[in-house]
Amino acid sequence: MLELLQFTFMQRALIAATLTGAVCAVIGVYVVLRGMSFIGAGISHASFGGVALGFFLRINPFHTAVVFCLLVAWLIGWVSERQRLREDAAVGIFFASTMAFGVLLVGLLKGVQVDLFGYLFGNILAISSTELLSMVALALVVFTVIVFFYKELLLLTFDAEMAAVIGLSVRGFNFIFLTLLALTIVLSIKAVGIVLVSALLVIPAASAAQLTDRFRNMMIVSVVFGVVSCWVGLFLSAVLDIASGATIVLTATFFFFISMLISPQRKKMRMRIGKLQKQSPEEYQESNPY
Amino acid sequence: MSDSLIELNQVSVAYQDKIVLEDISLSVNRGDFLGILGPNGSGKTTLLRTILGLTKPFSGQVSVFGRHPQRLGKLREKIGYVPQQSQLDLSFPIAVKDVVMLGRTHKIGLGKSPGKKDHEAVQRALKLVYLEDLAERQFGRLSGGQRQRVLIARALALEPEVLMLDEPTAALDVGVAESFFDWLHTTHANLGLTLLLVTHDVAVVPRYVTAVACLNKHLVAHGLPETVLTEEGLHAMYGCGALFFHHGSVPHMVVARKNQSDG
Questions:
Q1: Is A124 domain-assigned?
Q2: Predicted confidence pLDDT, tens digits, chain B (263 residues)
Q3: Pick among A144, A148, A159 to test the B interface (most B CBs inside 10 A)
Q4: Minimal-distance CA residue of chain A relative to B96
Q5: What single DSSP character describes residue B67?
Q6: Residue A201 is part of a domain; what is its CATH number?
């Protein structure tokens, strides 16, 4: 299996898998804790419109996808700030309309051969070195911002109202986060595809949530799950000659079920229920500390 | 007037087109312990949110430390706020001491990690609410009363001059609530705090507070507890709504419905 790594395309794929797995896993922690998985799915599907626009205008679809996803992410943020519309409705609007826009553009491209399937479902073995470079750049941006705003983003995730009380710009940080989410999605498209990115945003973080009770640990475990899923998926797909994006997502899902089975929370929960039944009401009453 | 920390001048607040607070004029001096009383929906929480600059009044002026509440800048660190039992995610992977540290997020500053001073402030705050033994526990694994104390510690970790508490005893048993008020009274004196306390607890408040504001959309009364909490004052406050006044399951007081108009 290791001789596969002699090929440059395989080396590129391995780097791409590592980047995608790590960045998605980090952003995914926020996505899962804030209950934003639908926004992730919405923005990733919107990138289809961006990719199609690139093909239509004959410029690099990767670049148009970046711009397009950023615009859609900000629009979702802006529309859901209007009090009369909930966030999921805003996502629902852009989810479908950007896909429709993409389908329309692709229909206009008569006679032009484009690798739509590769964008929709990912083709990690076909990543060019320029694409890899763009991925590295985007990943660096995302990681730097996350590290720099670590505690602000944590507070925003845990208690947005308190963030406002102590004077953080909740609006500003929401937009920063949507920006990071959009960049993460675009950089992952080549590896796992538009349709499957949202899975990588949710599954590794959800697996990590089963096993940890500290934010930082959840992030580390999530990255481990994300990266290992991408590696295993990549090698399986190369060896068995099957679709890379789908293999990666299914591998991550497999790890999720494993983490559910070994989750200490579940064990603790069972123990606690057992204890509660034995406990008398007096014991359960709250003590007075003051 | 230099001692006045918070000043409201004919402030009115509305959500959408429902007026919640109307024509409120109120001042809080340094070192005051102000009890804000009123029935449900009387705008107590909105009053705190207005002082914090989270809710914008449609008329009137609010000044906090002599400034507009949305332009407090660094002065914002001098205000601690303990929200009403909030809907925080109890499965959130975070330790008690980290929740308390989050109170200092803005003070620590962008791009910086907490330093020695910050950890010490967190320790002191946890000690003040008797939670130092549970510092490493996951926040969601605490009882309701303990979580409330974490949120108080989070506000105290800023070492504020003003502390605002919104119904801090809502989740406590009557006995614990009494002890809590004792604790608050001592802490008020020890830390030299200015306290704003929103509460239902008409029976307990007069023993501790230095001033009372009775709210029912309007400011019904404002002044010393012994002059405000008279029979007439309570009638004016609860006259247009509540018949019974509950704390926990024990009605403390029955106030007859008076046929007063809303105005």
A1: yes
A2: 457 889 999 999 998 888 889 888 888 989 889 988 888 778 888 999 999 998 899 999 999 998 888 888 888 889 999 998 777 888 999 999 999 999 999 889 888 889 999 999 999 999 999 998 999 999 999 888 889 899 999 999 999 999 999 988 877 777 788 888 888 888 888 888 999 999 877 776 777 888 888 888 777 767 777 666 666 666 666 653 333 333 333 333 433 333 444 33
A3: A159
A4: A214
A5: B
A6: 1.10.3470.10
| Residue the block writes with tokens 């089963």 | A210
Which token pair is A139?
Answer: 């990943």
Chain B partners within 8 Å of A212 (Cβ): 93
Interacting residues of A237 by C-beta distance below 8 A, sequence separation 6+: A124, A125, A243, A244, A247, A248
- CA B141, CA A158: separation in Å to the nearest integer? 15
Burial of A213 (0-12, 13-18, 19+ CB in 10 A): buried
In a domain, A290, yes or no: no
Can you give the residue range of the structural domain that contains A165? 2-279
Cβ of B93 and A215 within 8 Å?
A: yes
Please count the structural domains in chain A. Answer: 1
Q: Which of A196, A201, A185, A202 is nearest to A249 (CA)?
A: A196
CB contact under 8 A, A213 and B93: yes
User: How many Cβ pairs within 8 Å bridge chains A and B?
Assistant: 96
* A117 contact partners, CB below 8 Å, separation of at least 6: A123
CA-based end-to-end distance of chain A: 64
Residues paired with B7 in a beta bridge: B27, B63
Tokens of A211: 């096993």
Given phi > 0 = left and psi -120 to 50 = alpha, else beta, which region is B137?
beta
Residue by residue, DSSP assigns A189-201 as HHHH-TTTHHHHH
Domain assignment present for residue A77? The answer is yes
Contacts of B109 (CB under 8 A, 6+ apart): none
User: What size, in residues, is chain A?
Assistant: 290
Q: Which of B52, B108, B179 sits opposite A165 (nearest CB)?
A: B52
In a domain? residue A287: no
B75 near A CB under 8 A: no
